[in-house]
Specification:
This protein is an alpha/beta fold. It is 39% helix and 15% strand. The protein is built from four helices and four strands. It has a four-stranded parallel beta sheet with strand order 1-4-3-2. Helix 2 links the parallel strand 2 and strand 3. The protein starts with 15 loop residues before the first strand and ends in a 9-residue tail after the last strand. The model has no long low-confidence stretch (mean pLDDT 90).
């Protein structure tokens, strides 16, 4: 790279947004105020929010199917809100365990379970990128912070 190649200006591409915070502060409500939003819900937390949403995803495949519908079917939605990433992680872990025939991620030899989960994460992220890059949709991801006490020894 050279200084002579530096560019200036604005790129009007759809936004990627991560909304990260503690429980109950309005992350999903904020998502519902986005431009023409549709929710993919991996947790059951939208009951009090007026919004359009897919049925609650109970498996990783449900999330992938919803991404595929938004990619391949005509619609007027401008923003995808994935609520939430931490519950998607649980669905991915359940999928890995089912495919490997184990009860828990810890039943898979050290470190391998999370390597196996990368395949599902990459599939979901590729779907989100396709919606943004090829369908022009904004992508909003919601994630939860958990406050933990720390006692200094």
């Amino acid at each position: 790279m050279r200084l002579s190649e530096v560019q200036r200006g604005r790129v009007d591409a759809p936004r990627r947004t991560l909304v990260y915070g503690t429980h109950g502060i309005g992350k999903s409500t904020f998502g519902a105020m986005a431009d023409a939003p549709i929710f993919i819900q991996t947790e059951d937390g939208l009951a009090a929010i007026e919004c359009e949403r897919f049925p609650l995803a109970r498996r990783h495949g449900d999330v992938i199917a919803a991404l595929g519908e938004l990619y391949s079917q005509p619609h007027e939605y401008r923003t995808l809100v994935l609520d939430s990433l931490d519950w998607l992680e649980r669905l991915i872990w359940a999928d890995v365990c089912e495919k490997r025939g184990v009860e828990s991620m810890e039943d898979i030899p050290y470190g391998k379970s999370y390597v196996f989960a990368l395949t599902q994460w990459r599939e979901a992220l590729a779907g989100l990128d396709a919606l943004r890059n090829e369908r022009g949709m904004h992508v909003m991801l919601i994630a939860h912070a958990q406050i933990e006490r720390f006692a200094n020894p």
